[in-house]
Amino acid sequence: MKKLVAFLVAAGIVAYGCNKQPSEPKFSVDPNPVIQQAINSKKNLIVIFESETCQYCDKLNREVLRDIEVKQNLIKNNIEIAIVNVDGSRKVLDPEGKKEVDEKTLSSLYRVTGYPTIAVFNPDKNYELIGVIPGYIPKNYFMKLADYLGTKCYEKMEFQKYIDNGGKC
Q1: Helix or strand or coil: residue 117?
Q2: Nearest to 59 by CA among 30, 17, 29, 24
Q3: Which residues contact 11 (CB under 8 A, 6 or more apart)?
Q4: Residue whose C-alpha is closest to residue 32's, from 24, 42, 40, 22
């Protein structure tokens, strides 16, 4: 049985996400400078709330956020992404409230209960929360979210209507 499991893991058929050691610590990038930079530069801001053991957070990072096409789309749409550890103690600026709190408190402020949770903020309205998307979203949907922000379609319609409309305002 051990040989079969070893073969399946080696072949990529079975993966043990929780037991696998990442190449770098999961929360190695401090979200506070990213949030500060977005606010100082009036960039679009997405805050992604993740937990240490969340497999869908790992999938979002691996399949979406690390993708070169997604990265280029984020640059094109003037978007900064900050990743917050829902159990973390680092101080971060609440984009909407403009007060520094720890990551765990920020997660509570936005009523984060599932992971990942994607919060989107409006730079034109002092980083007022536009909306929250709970759970994993695939690359094509994430790219549409970036375009939705970059084109400011959020001023005209809800995100779901934008999606239903084929990504047009």
Answers
A1: strand
A2: 17
A3: none
A4: 40
pTM: 0.84
d(CA 118, CA 151): 19
pLDDT, one tens digit per residue, over 54-96 is 999 999 999 999 999 999 999 999 999 999 999 999 999 999 9
CA gap 48, 136 in Å, rounded: 10
Express each pLDDT in 38-55 by its tens digit.
Answer: 999 999 999 999 999 999
In whole angstroms, what is the distance from residue 7 CA to residue 3 CA?
6
- Residue that the structure tokens 């984009």 belong to: 95
Token pair in block for residue 151: 């084109």
Regarding beta strands 100-102 and 91-93, do their DSSP bridges make them parallel or antiparallel, or are they unpaired?
Answer: antiparallel
